[in-house]
Design a protein that fits this description.
Length: about 650
């Protein structure tokens, strides 16, 4: 590189300014003003200039983010200001109690402003700047003394090596890692046979304490400021504003609230929405906004009185098993479930959890009376992870599966090679109830207003024997029943009448054939195109369907041979049920998988799914690595967040309709 030292110095200064501008826009303003390739090219040029003339290297140069040599250990740093812990609150009542306590101290203050922000789940780090240059970075440690992690923090692009103003101050914030990078690192570790990190916080903490900064640099750690120890700002809000001007990222969803009502609204609003964020959060932090009042409130123990941490309901907790009981499914499956002391998980109170089968209970060694770890699986289904055996008293009881059906008293058998025990009786009331509930469910006939209690009444009064009898009901049959008035009877009959015409895949699913779920029903419908073709097919033809194994094929064949099922089909025909054929319009979407979430404006979700199938594609209900497109309507829910994490292409309803109608 033929360039003089003077020219190299001027060029290097310009490159640093440009690279710092790129970093500021990306990490502070969430704007990518150039591509990653451009940034890499500029950085490479700067490295070459500094390699030729090492004397032009400055401490704040972007090239100095990665220190080459592994550290022998972490030095200790004493914090200028002590690192305090926040008191946790878990309910609105506790928030108001906190406010009452601080108002009793601030006697002359009539009202308080609060600054509420989401709490990123990472590792607290304190950065010290002198005249705008990063001097050192330390972990919180015990609040007084932390570990010097300066070399590692310099690798984090979100941390400015030089502030936009030559200020001397301390910036406190959170080092964290986003979900996408967390999954990438875990995939690499899995390939290498290394243990995987449990969550993003563990990965961030483990990475920051690596002795080799080059390893740290390979993992894209991030950083967000939540406080500044500086005399300039008068409020906590101004601390955030100044931090952003100085080149830091701050938690962008923070809000100034005029009272606790607004604070609670903010916290509740983000309880669900936070799951769509690219990083992990476990609650919120509420500060008295005025720095003067915050200081005046002082400290109690190791916690400032002027701030508290709101904790969202844990997704994992402990509780005690009171009893283990069983229920009977539509195929006769006897499923054990735990009755637990109520515990709040992911925003809801749960007191029951499925235990799947006796083998699972035995494998986990779960007993009545155990203290157990319970979590929400996918934020929906409560699941018992394991018992805490060290807390046993000796009074716990082992569970044994019943030998008789808990509903009809029929014999319970466990077929060879299967994990599930079943009621052998073909006339079990519980089985028929479950079959009817399945028949009217959303993915089947979708008959609104037919809940468990109403179905139970209809069966007990002899108005229906099976699901097909629903189509002969009249308003006169319903009016005498408990819970029914004229209008509710009319609404239910109207709902039944509206369901007489049904898509082929939904009809197949509604029949409750063993091993045939909603996805397999779709595959069967797409394969045969009409009910008549499906009904007259042979066992070998069933086996040819993609996704239908030998067991499922035999279950279909056996279902059609049953005299009881033949009568049900005849009654459905007599009741005016019409099953639509599938009119395939092409194969353009062959091998493409779509998931549709949220409310669509122009068509229903079911119609959208059928459009995909008509073009040879697959429409599934859950997001996975095999998903090609997520169609996001209004209020898309957790599927959108999962699709973003997996890097799946997300399209609007308008984009989707353009694809299927082009």
């Amino acid at each position: 590189m033929g360039i003089t030292k003077t020219a190299a110095k001027k060029r290097a200064e310009k490159l640093r300014r440009e690279l710092n501008k790129i970093r500021f826009e990306y990490h502070v303003n969430d704007r990518e003003i150039v591509s990653e390739a451009v940034k890499t090219s500029l950085n490479h040029e700067l490295e070459q200039l500094e390699e030729k003339y090492p004397e032009i290297i400055t401490p704040d140069s972007p090239t100095q983010r990665v220190a080459g040599k592994p550290l022998k250990g972490f030095k200790k740093i004493t914090h200028k200001y002590p690192g305090l812990s926040l008191v946790d609150v878990f309910s609105e009542e506790e928030l108001y109690e906190w406010e009452n306590r601080i108002k009793n101290i601030l006697i002359d203050v009539q009202s308080l402003e609060y600054f509420a922000e989401l709490k990123i789940d990472g590792l607290s780090v304190y950065l010290t700047y002198e005249n705008g240059l990063l001097k050192h970075a330390a972990t919180r440690g015990n609040g007084r003394i932390g570990e010097d992690v300066t070399a590692n923090v310099k690798t984090i692009e979100a941390v400015p090596l030089k502030l936009t103003k030559p200020l001397s101050l301390e910036a406190r914030g959170e080092v964290f890692i986003n979900f996408k990078e967390f999954e990438r690192v875990n995939r690499e570790r899995e390939k290498e046979g290394l243990p995987m990190y449990a969550n993003p916080r563990n990965l961030a903490a483990g990475t920051l304490r690596q002795l080799n900064p080059r390893i740290v640099a390979k993992r894209k750690l991030d950083f967000a400021v939540w406080a500044l120890n500086s005399s300039e700002p008068q409020t906590h809000q101004e601390q955030h504003e100044l931090a952003k001007k100085l080149g830091f990222r701050v938690e962008s969803h923070a809000k100034l609230c005029q009272n606790l009502t607004e604070v609670i609204r903010f916290l509740k609003n983000w309880e669900i929405k936070r799951k769509k964020l690219p990083y992990q959060t476990d609650g919120g932090v509420i500060n008295v906004n005025s720095n003067k009042l915050f200081t005046q409130l002082g400290v109690v123990g190791k916690a400032p009185r002027g701030a508290v941490a709101w904790k969202y309901s844990a997704e994992q907790s402990t509780t005690k098993i009171i009893d283990i009981k069983t229920n009977v499914g539509r195929t006769g499956a006897i499923t054990p479930f735990a009755i637990m002391e109520p515990v709040k998980l992911a925003g809801t109170t749960v007191s029951r959890a499925t235990l799947h089968n006796a083998d699972e209970i035995k494998r986990k060694d779960i007993r009545i009376g155990d203290t157990v770890i319970v979590q929400k699986a996918g934020d929906i289904i409560p699941e018992i992870i394991k018992p805490l055996v060290n807390l046993r008293t000796g009074e716990e009881k082992k569970f044994t599966m019943p030998k008789k059906c808990p509903v009809c008293g029929g014999r319970v058998i466990k077929p060879k090679g299967e994990a599930v025990a079943r009621c052998e009786s073909k006339d079990c009331f519980a089985i028929e109830m479950q079959r009817i509930e399945h028949f009217v469910s959303r993915d089947a006939f979708n008959i609104e207003g037919l809940g468990e209690k109403i179905i139970e009444q209809l069966v007990q009064k002899g108005l229906i024997v099976d699901a097909a009898d629903l189509f002969k009901l009249t308003e006169g049959d319903l009016r005498p029943l408990e819970r029914f008035a004229d209008k509710s009877a009319e609404n239910l009959i109207e709902s039944i009448n509206n369901s007489r015409r049904i898509a082929l895949n939904r009809f197949i699913f509604a029949l409750g054939i063993r091993h045939i779920g909603a996805i397999t029903a779709n595959q069967i419908a797409n394969y045969f195109g009409s009910w008549e073709n499906f009904e007259k097919a042979t066992l070998d033809e069933y086996k040819e369907i993609d996704g239908v194994g030998d067991k499922a094929a035999e279950a279909i064949s056996s279902w059609f041979k049953s005299e009881k099922n033949k009568k049900i089909l005849a009654k459905l025909k007599e009741g005016g049920v019409q099953v639509d054929k599938i009119e395939k319009t092409g194969t353009r979407l062959k091998d493409k998988t779509f998931v549709i979430t949220g409310s669509l404006a122009d068509i229903s979700r079911e119609e959208a799914q059928q459009l995909v199938r008509n073009l040879g594609g697959r429409a599934t209900s859950s997001v996975s690595k095999k998903t090609d497109y997520l169609v996001a309507g209004e209020n898309p829910g957790s599927k959108l967040a999962k699709a973003e994490k997996l890097g799946i292409k997300i399209i609007s309803e308008e984009d989707f309709l353009a694809i299927v109608r082009s």
